[in-house]
Structure formats: structure tokens, C-alpha cells
Amino acid sequence: MKSHWQQLEQKEKQLISILIATLLLAGGYWLLWQPLQNDIVNTQRKVNVQTQTLADVKVIGQKIMDLQGGQAARSETGDLNQLVSRSAARDKIVITRIQAKTDNLQVWIDDVNFNKLTAWLEKLNKQYGIEIQNIDLSVSDTKGMVKVRRLQLGKRA
């Protein structure tokens, strides 16, 4: 190889050197620079999605805080279990499990439309004085639907 290189003319050596430099630059661009740029764009897209999700969660949190602090016009009476069960049935929300505690109620709902859930929780708060003490939601497989892993409700004092 070395002897072959020695036999080449100066112009051929320069052309081969330029070709090698060009290949190194092109390889560096396509093997290093371009993938890095693609990763930056993808990461920025993910950040934007997460920022939007955070904004949505803040809005939901504010709605929940509003529901907890709103004044209730108590139009019906009854124990917490009966009020929640009747209200859910009227709003066509299927409660999969309900567990009564001393002064609160824990509720599980498999799949429910998120907007329907927030409207129901607002209704519970305003009509019956029932507050959200704790809520654990997860996104369902269906768009716009959530699973209520645990919803703890209690009457306002």
C-alpha cells in the first residue's frame, strides 16, 4: 500500500487527500451532527408535550381546588354513600367499588369521560357539600377517558 502511494503523482495524492477529507466531513455530518440535531428536535417536541400536560394538570388542579372550596347549596340530605351513589346513577357514572369510612367515602371508577367526571364532582360539591379530599387518576386507553384509581370524598364541616 505504501509503495503504491509512493508511485502516485502529486496531483493524484492531493485528489485522494481531498476525497478522504470530504468523506470524513460527510461521515461526521451524517453519523454525528445529523443524529444530534434530530435528537434535539425530538427532545424539544417532548418538552412541549410535557409542558402542555403540566398546564392541563394545573387547570385540573385548580378546578379541584375550586370544587373543594365552593359553597354548597344542600338540596338533598342523606348519608354520604347514598348521596354519591344516587348522584352517580343520575349522571350515568358507573362506580365499580365504593368503601365507606368513618367520615369519608372512597370510590373507584373504571372508565369515565374526564369532562363528565369533573362536572359530577362539581355537582357533588355545590349541591351536596361533598368535598374531594384526595383523588388518584390515570389515563385510560380511550381518548378523553380516565380511570379513577381512588377518589376520597367527605362532607364539608
What does this structure look like?
The protein is α+β, with helices and mostly antiparallel strands and 157 residues long. The chain has four helices and four strands; from the N terminus they run αααββαββ. The protein has helices spanning 2-7, 10-69, 80-90, 114-128; strands at 97-100, 104-113, 130-139, 145-155. It has a four-stranded antiparallel sheet. A hairpin with a 3-residue loop joins strand 1 and strand 2 (104-113). Helix 2 (10-69) runs parallel beside helix 4. The longest helix has 60 residues, at 10-69. It is rod-shaped and about 105 Å long. The model is unreliable at 71-75 (pLDDT under 50).
Fold blueprint:
Blueprint: H1 2-7, H2 10-69, H3 80-90, E1 97-100, E2 104-113, H4 114-128, E3 130-139, E4 145-155
Antiparallel strand pairs: 1-2, 2-4, 3-4
Helix pairs in contact: 2-4
Gap between N and C termini, in Å?
Answer: 91 Å
Estimate what percentage of residues fall within beta strands.
Answer: 15-25%
Biggest sheet: strands side by side, in what order? 1-2-4-3
Total count of helical runs of at least 4 residues: 4
Shape: rod-shaped
Which H/E pattern describes the elements? HHHEEHEE
Major sheet: size, sense and barrel closure?
Answer: 4 strands, antiparallel
